Amino acid sequence: MLVDWEVHARDCVAKLRLTQANYLDDPWFNELVEWLLSRSPEFTKWWDEHDVRLPHRGCEGLHEHPGVGRLSFDYAILQVAGSR
Question: What pTM was estimated for this model as a whole?
Fold first, then answer.
């Protein structure tokens, strides 16, 4: 439903790579990454680019909702200093 699905998905992969630094020895996190790599060629391609991004703000658009039409949301992601 996302208007810019690929842009959003690539951003999520880059943020996941940033988060990985906090969970290098976490078996669950590593299992999650392996699971995604085994099921998504797009994820594998983007993961191999080693892109990292901090959470930020932006605008997300959703394609036509049957009841209300196209939706657009502004958002901001805040991170507490010293938190994961």
Answer: 0.66
